Automatic annotation (TrEMBL):
CDD domains given in the database record: CYP64-like
Cofactor: heme
Keywords annotated in UniProt: Heme, Iron, Metal-binding, Monooxygenase, Oxidoreductase, Signal
Family (UniProt): Belongs to the cytochrome P450 family.
Binding site for heme: 422
GO molecular function, one term: iron ion binding
Gene3D superfamilies: Cytochrome P450 (1.10.630.10)
The keyword Iron appears for this protein: yes
Superkingdom to which the source organism belongs: Eukaryota
Organism: Pisolithus microcarpus 441
PANTHER family recorded: P450, PUTATIVE (EUROFUNG)-RELATED, P450, PUTATIVE (EUROFUNG)-RELATED-RELATED
The protein, known as: Cytochrome P450
Length: 483
């Protein structure tokens, strides 16, 4: 009891001192918070995007809040994001130094590493295998897995989400480790799926902020009220270690025996002087985008009909597209751009952190501030989309039906800003295009029927998480036979 009292007094004292230490310049505008807890009650942790969108309308392109003593700014404008993340990258490229990452076993994963030597080593290794001028060598890999994906969905559409997860994980595993994932029971896939689920639900911004001002939470027993996440953390650490160590050990053994196919690990280990912890790091996901594409095809059958018509005209009914066909399929590409705009997978993004204090347009931004660059462009104000909640691929087309140069450039923001831009963005782009082109050339999606023969309505529901992914929904899938 005495320990809790001392801890509480310490936290309150810290808050009082922080309140007295006011900067000479004002913080950016934002909603006024409550003592100690700040703005935590203003945000629905299950659906924060509507609140952020409303704040952008009220306060402008940059919004300041505090949650349990943690300074946070929310950037809703691409122009402002580029000024900060691109123009001032030395300040805005860090990650928050949170013990939460260590407890969940992810402290050395590239996307959460602090801005420094190890992070730069990781980026260099990714660039070696995933830069734009070399990802074309993986095109056959994408298309082969996409054909298998189409067959899996047609055979068992009740588990379409699982097939999409398998597609994304199988490609990444083969890319990184040179190892084929044989099916949903493959141990690597099972571990990756479990790890993704835990991270998406448990490693949240509010938890990170809470642990910062009350670090003793990490030392409470898991049965203590409010500390139940520690059980998940223990499970996550085990999964993270196993998921990396098992395929890495297999790949290293095959390399030493001279039987390892060309892959990222072979490139990395052959460089010499590369730490295993750096060579093990590889994170990517396309499944959430593909699930949204399926959802869109059911919600907007007119869009699906236009995609089918373009494929039939350009490639031919019953013919599987290749990457050589991509420039001749502008409407398909416009659909992908609109999916990324309508529901970007990293809609809130993992926050950046400032390495030092900064001043932007007369506003003071403290050192260690978490910076959320909002990728949900329905909240971004500097693009002027008409009726932004409406799904409309023609936004990205010129009057003569070609892709607009502005959309090509604008689509890049969904992979991040500045030095934290996703290193696997070109590979992910190829992976998403291949899967979409193949399944749309071979399959047709529609509403499922219940036992009485009535159509089951589908609602676009996106549960909160690190990755914005639609909630599971029922659908019907039929093949598109050659006519």
């Amino acid at each position: 009891m005495l320990t809790l009292g001392v801890t509480f007094a310490t936290v309150v004292g810290w808050w009082v001192l922080a309140s007295w230490a006011k900067p000479k310049l004002p913080y950016p505008p934002g909603p006024k918070g409550l003592p100690f807890i700040g703005n935590v009650l203003d945000i629905d942790p299950q659906a924060p995007r509507p609140t952020y969108a409303q704040w952008s309308k009220t306060y402008g392109d940059i919004v300041y809040i505090r949650i349990f003593g943690q300074d946070i700014i929310i950037v809703n404008s691409e122009k402002t994001a580029r000024i900060l993340a691109d123009g001032r990258s030395e300040i805005y490229s860090d990650r928050y130094r949170s013990s939460v990452y260590k407890h969940f076993g992810t402290s050395r994963v590239t996307f959460v590493l602090e801005y420094g030597k190890e992070w730069k080593t990781h980026r260099k290794l990714f660039h070696l295998s995933l830069r734009n001028d070399v990802v074309g060598r993986y095109n056959d890999l994408h298309l082969n897995h996409a054909r298998q994906l189409s067959e899996n969905i047609l055979r068992d559409n009740s588990n379409s989400f699982e097939h999409l997860d398998l597609y994304a994980n199988a490609i990444i595993t083969e890319l990184v480790y040179g190892r084929r994932v044989e099916g949903k029971d493959d141990p690597v896939f099972v571990m990756a799926s479990a790890l993704t689920e835990v991270l998406n639900k448990e490693v949240t911004a509010d938890r990170i902020g809470l642990v910062k001002v009350m670090p003793f939470l990490l030392h409470l027993p898991s049965w203590f009220p409010g500390a139940g996440f520690k059980r998940k953390a223990r499970q996550c650490r085990k999964l993270a270690t196993e998921m990396v160590d098992l395929p890495f050990a297999m790949a290293k053994d095959e390399l030493e025996r001279g039987v390892l196919p060309h892959c990222m690990i072979s490139d990395m280990l052959k460089q010499g002087g590369v730490e295993e912890s750096s060579a093990k790091a590889a994170v990517s996901s396309t499944a959430s985008v593909l699930k949204t594409i399926m959802l869109v095809m059911i919600l907007h059958p007119d869009v699906q009909d236009k995609v089918h018509a373009e494929l039939d005209t350009v490639v031919g009914r019953g013919t599987i597209p290749t990457f050589a066909d991509r420039p001749r399929l502008p409407y398909l590409q416009a659909v992908l751009y609109e999916v990324m705009r309508w529901n970007p997978p990293a809609s809130l993004g993992l926050p950046h952190a400032t390495t030092t204090s900064d001043i932007y347009e007369g506003y003071y931004i403290p050192k260690g501030t978490l910076v959320h660059f909002i990728f949900a462009n329905r909240a971004m104000k500097d693009h002027g989309y008409d009726d932004p909640d409406r799904f409309d691929p023609t936004r990205h087309l010129t009057p003569d039906g070609q892709l607009s140069p502005e959309s090509r450039q604008h689509n890049l923001i969904f992979y991040g800003f500045g030095k934290r831009v996703c290193p696997g963005r070109f590979f992910a782009d190829h992976s998403i295009w291949a899967a979409t082109a193949v399944i749309m050339s071979t399959l047709k999606f529609g509403k499922a029927k219940d036992s009485s023969g009535k159509y089951i309505e589908v609602e676009p529901i996106f549960p909160n998480g690190l990755i914005s992914c639609p909630a599971p929904f029922s659908c019907s899938v039929t093949s598109r036979p050659v006519e």
